[in-house]
Amino acid sequence: MTTTNDFLADCRARLAFDLLSNTWNAVVLWSLRDGPRRPVELRERIGGISAKVLTETLRRLQYHGLVERHPQRPGVAYELTALGRTLLAPIDAFGAWAFEHGDEVLTAQEAAEGRS
After folding, report:
1. How many whole angstroms separate alpha carbon 22 and alpha carbon 113?
2. For the whole prediction, is pTM greater than 0.85?
3. Residue 78: strand, helix, or coil
4. Using CA atoms in the order 37, 41, 47, 53, what is the torsion angle rounded to 10 degrees?
5. Could you read off the pLDDT of 32-83 as tens digits, one per residue?
6. Cα gap 116→112, rounded to integer Å
């Protein structure tokens, strides 16, 4: 059973939060949900990510066992692993939350900036 204290003490919970706290991790994982993609396809699909940052993100996700790199001629393609696919539901849930509550967060930010 998970308790609030588990989030403070369990390094596995921290790992999960670290994986999703990096903006590009979730975006790249979501972009791979429909199947393998070459880096150039990912950059077109994502927009706003440099080649360097995409490469770093893909390496990080590969290190964590969430994506696989497949050499092709020419170049390479990346694909979600079974483990990587397990993160799609939590990413979708975060996205749904942001869609539902994003305006409230933006209003709070604007109010806080007005107080500064």
Report:
1. 24
2. no
3. strand
4. 70
5. 999 999 999 999 999 999 999 999 999 999 999 999 999 998 899 999 999 9
6. 7
